[in-house]
Amino acid sequence: MNSRILSSCVVVLALLISLNVKCSSGNDYNCVGCTLVIGLVLEYVEFNNLTMEQGLKTLCSYLPAEYGVTCKELVNIFEIPLLLILEQTSHPDLICRGLELCKGNSTKCTLYPKSRDVPAKGIIKGNQYRPGQVKIPKIPDDICDYPPFKEICRIIKQVEDHYPAQDFDKDHFSTIRTLRGSSWRGKDCNDFNKDIYPGRGDGKDIIVDTNCNGIVGSDPDTGESYEDMWCKGTQAMGTVILGDSVGAHFHLPEELVNPTLIGPLTYKYLPEMIENELDWPMESAATGYEESVWDPAKGEVISLYRQLRNKNRCNHRDYHNIAVNGAWSGTNSMGKIDKTLTRNATVDKPVFLILALLGNDVCNSHHTMNTMTTVTEFKTNMNAVLDYLDGYLPEKSVVVSVGLADGRVLYDNMHNRIHPAAAFSRDVNYRTFYNFLNCLEISPCFGWLNDNSTWRSMTHQRAMNLSQGLKEVVKAKNFKRIIGIYMDSPVAEMISDWEKQGGKGWELIEPVDGFHTSRMGQAQTAKILYQQMEKNYPEIIPPVNPHNEDIVNMFGTQNGH
Question: Is residue 126 part of a domain?
């Protein structure tokens, strides 16, 4: 069973980390974790015509070595109690109650249909134990106190300040990909010199590539540096996003939870995924730069960074993704996130910064409007962020403040679709999944992921009020150093345009949590956002560098990303 308690942490922390929910989970989180885990394992063994013992052994063998041992230990602890309960029922909700992982109020919440309440005859064999002979193991309320989750929680805590975990020269850039490394910020080309990092703008770079864009050396005839010849005066600028899990591109590959797709290589990159907080900034709408080898998702990576880099190859590696799962406008969230942006106003290039908090000011698990951010609070919070950026960023930087998304598109496009965790039995759709999370009061967004249209409408209205408040803040500000503009969120337009092209709206939404934009959704967001800026604010779009061809001919891939 509990090969998946490890990947339950991925499934559950997928749903909960996406909101930056504290690892300390309590009974309701143990319940949803157990229910999803048991359901997935049962689906897997039935789809592959295996016994439970065979399925558990196989799933453990698929885990990376560092998790495989723990998986086997967990199976030894939970297998017999599980088999005893399976003799009575194969209903995941009832099994988790029998394992005492769903208790109290959580016993009122059910994910799977009543038809599952039958003995699991085909997947058990030779069980010699009887009820009463085996003690049900206890799991601590705090997930981080339970062995499988300790390492995951440690990794998450390691980067909770949103700086790279490995950074020898303390310039906030790294040579490793994960743990807030080069997946998030341009790769450092010298991690032992704090004066060498992506985005630096005052170097000649004749001998040393001080800004890591791969352009170094000088013309043999004139002695002029290539950096000066081909980059100076071209309006080179970095790309930055400050935002939430959508900006970070939270993404849990469907293959991890779809029983019909699980295979020997499914969990190969699980450690790297966890080290990146289940985010994929390298494929995001803001800072995407490559199709990751970790990710089987389909669709081209299109991003603001790629488009600005294509216009000017001097922008190579100059990106910051400082988006955080669960971020909202409050001073204990965005008021800390913006301070982790690293830019020297004196020596660094300007930036093109997207400020995008798309939902968490109206999204939480509470069944009330009272916990949503008010318009007054939102305006105060965002005014403070913009004041900070105006005083901190290099002159001529551009800050695009984006309004909240129209989250109604989530339920509208997903509620009748089958959830991938039930891809074999096809008996759980997203409406049921959303309601289960709401019942447990752990939903990422009670207001939008709700089968009550009144709640969805009220949440949308609050989101639109907050967006209007942000628009008023931006319009009223007298920016001294930066150019500040406001733009509506392109999410609704993105789906509308996609459907006009013959696509389906659900293709642009994450298939596991049903709450974020998929890779294709990220790409479409980038395209529309850029098109809108070109149309409505052409003055903020930098020109094409006439020396791009020279740079490519001389430096090729510019040392890659």
Answer: no
Residues 301 and 405 in one domain: yes
Q: Residues 459-496: pLDDT tens digits?
A: 999 999 999 999 999 999 999 999 999 999 999 999 99
Query: In sequence order, which ranges of 419-539 are alpha helices (DSSP H)?
Result: 430-439, 453-476, 491-500, 519-536
Distance CA 533, CA 311 (A): 15
Mean pLDDT over 296-300 rounds to 74
**Token pair belonging to 184:** 């998030």
Q: How high is the pLDDT of residue 9? A: 39
Q: CA 93 to CA 106: how far, in whole Å?
A: 10
Closest CA to 470 of 372, 373, 401, 390: 401
Who contacts 132 (Cβ-Cβ below 8 Å, separation ≥6)?
none
Residue 150 shares a structural domain with residue 233: no
3-state secondary structure of 322: strand
Q: Is the pLDDT of residue 5 over 50?
A: no
Domain contains 523: yes
Are 92 and 35 in contact, with CB atoms under 8 Å apart?
yes
Whether residues 386 and 470 fall in one domain = yes
Based on the domain organization, do 252 and 148 belong to the same domain? Answer: no
- Rounded Cα distance, 545 and 543, in Å: 6
Distance, in Å, from the CA atom of 164 to the CA atom of 294, rounded to the nearest integer, reads: 20
Which residue range forms the structural domain that includes residue 418? Answer: 227-539
Residues 147 and 270 in one domain: no
Within-domain flag for 219: no
- 0.85 exceeded by pTM: yes
Query: Does the annotation mark 245 as catalytic?
Result: yes
* Spatial separation of the C-alpha atoms in residues 308 and 315, rounded to whole Å: 7
In sequence order, what DSSP letters do the residues of 149-173 get, joined into one string? HHHHHHHHHHTTT-S-S--TT-SS-
CA separation for the pair 39, 127 (Å, rounded)? 21
In DSSP terms, which residues pair with 352 in a beta bridge?
239, 398
- How confident is the model over 500-555, as pLDDT tens digits? 999 999 999 999 999 999 999 999 999 999 999 999 999 999 999 999 999 999 99
For residue 147, give Cα distances in angstroms to 67, 152, 451, 463.
11, 10, 37, 40
Task: Report which of 483, 558, 482, 539 is spatially closest to residue 230, judged by C-alpha positions.
Answer: 558
**Contact (Cβ atoms closer than 8 angstroms) between residue 461 and residue 407:** no
Q: Is residue 390 part of a domain?
A: yes
Indicate whether 150 and 251 sit together in one domain.
no
With a pLDDT cut of 70, the percent of the chain lying above it is 89
Residue whose structure tokens are 């997947």: 123
Q: Which of 106, 245, 401, 425 is catalytic?
A: 245
State the amino acid at position 212 in one-letter form: C
495 with 391, same domain?
A: yes
Average of per-residue pLDDT values in the chain: 89
Give pLDDT, residue 16.
38
pLDDT at position 561 over 70: yes
- Alpha-carbon distance of 393 to 350, in angstroms, equals 7
